[in-house]
Design brief:
The chain is an alpha/beta fold. It folds into 2 domains: about 190 residues, Rossmann fold (3-Layer(aba) Sandwich); about 90 residues, Rossmann fold (3-Layer(aba) Sandwich). It has 12 helices and 13 strands. The radius of gyration is 19 Å and the shape is globular. The chain binds zinc ion. The site of zinc ion has 8 residues, from loops.
Length: about 375
């Protein structure tokens, strides 16, 4: 409903028409950013109804590339709590595990599937370590779209069960997430299949994590926002949401963004530490945090750029540190899956102080036995 000016490749700057469906740049394979008429957004958010409205994903509809809100596919995503950390003064937890399918992915899926409805799509294919697949399955089948999820070996059985429960088809793949991703790309190139996953529309929806945080802080920015990085899409979405909030005058400064990865899949952090503008690839990611075990991050270059822009920080955490963080979160009523505890582990390792928002990306029920059964005295 807000006018889209154009779509632009992050890497080479090639422009695409607003209505074109483009997953990755046709020239260089880069990711696609969407540019809006920000004057129009500014007019919409100046209304008192905007600031007074309760925090929810669709409150920020004017920042999404949706033609008509009547097409909206929603399960009540977003509006997740931002609660105090019991053990660290100033630290806040954004509990994304409380989204409809148990992870932040629902923000992206709501926008991506609504766009698929607008584009009259009937079949969607998605590579996933589990969370994205579950989310796309829930929103897709609700929209009447057939969903097929390509799952790498080693995905937690609970996540696979969740995908099937929403009525999607599961294709079990040998190998890693990157193998599943490549298979879906090939399918798309050969048959024109509509793929879902870490592309432009999803990132547009994931802007709402950043927008909600500053809204919940009464349009003040925290010192740090700490984000786990797998593909990098959520990190980039949060950066874009904050950038656009600044462009339309909702905030006047930027928080430092902090990227945390598992040491067994340090694609972006190792590049950051070596001052390299492109992410490394990891053939065989090895971490308990399966949801961020992505050896070839689609949005790695974007994460590195955003780190530079926000004078951010990047660090890795070990499986032991992740499990310790999960334990600390559990003892204050927040049960996270391993990847969901990564930001908390990172904030701990970096010794961040001031106002620090940790994004808890996924629920503990997603992968309940990771790290072994919990002993009776924990
Ligand atoms: Zn390009």
């Amino acid at each position: 409903m807000v006018k889209i000016k154009n779509q632009v490749c992050f890497m080479c700057g090639k422009k695409y028409k607003p209505e074109k469906v483009v997953f990755r740049c046709e020239k260089c394979g880069g990711s696609i950013d969407i540019n809006y008429d920000f004057k129009e957004i500014k007019n919409l958010i100046n209304k008192p109804t905007f600031t007074k409205a309760p925090v929810s994903h669709w409150k920020y509809w004017m920042f999404y590339p949706i033609k008509n809100l009547k097409n909206m596919i929603t399960l009540g995503e977003g509006g997740t709590p931002l609660i105090n950390d019991k053990f660290h003064k100033g630290r806040l937890l954004k509990n994304e595990g409380l989204n409809p399918t148990g992870s932040f992915k629902d923000r992206g899926s709501a926008v991506e599937i609504t766009k698929a409805v607008e584009n009259k799509v009937h079949n969607i294919y998605c590579p996933s370590t589990g969370n994205m697949g579950a989310s796309i399955a829930a929103y897709g089948t609700r929209a009447g779209i057939r969903v097929t999820v390509y799952v790498p070996s080693g995905a937690p059985p609970v996540k696979v069960q969740q995908i099937k429960s929403y009525g999607a088809r599961v294709v079990n793949m040998r190998g890693t997430y990157t193998n599943a991703l490549n298979s879906v790309y090939e399918l798309s190139e050969d048959t024109g299949a509509y793929i879902s996953g870490d592309y432009g529309y999803r990132g547009e929806g994931e802007k709402s994590t950043g927008l909600e945080i500053i809204d919940q802080l009464n349009w003040q920015i925290p010192d740090y926002i700490v984000i786990p990085v797998g593909m990098g899409n959520h990190f980039w979405g949060i950066h874009q949401g904050l950038k656009e909030a600044k462009m339309v005058g909702l905030i006047d400064k930027f928080p430092k963004l902090v990227a945390i990865q598992a040491s067994g899949c340090d694609t972006v952090v190792s590049s950051w530490k070596n001052n390299d503008p492109l992410p490394k690839t990891r053939k065989n990611p090895d971490t308990i945090a399966g949801a961020i075990a992505c050896g070839k991050p689609n949005f790695g270059a974007e994460v590195l750029y955003a780190l530079k822009q926000t004078k951010g920080l990047a660090e890795t955490v070990t499986d032991g540190e992740i499990l310790q963080a999960r334990k600390e979160l559990g003892k204050q009523g927040v049960w996270a899956e391993p990847a969901g505890a990564v930001a908390y582990a990172g904030a701990e390792k970096l010794g961040l102080s001031g106002q620090v928002v940790c994004i808890i990306t996924g629920h503990g029920l997603k992968d309940p036995f990771a790290g072994g059964a919990i002993p009776s005295v924990y």
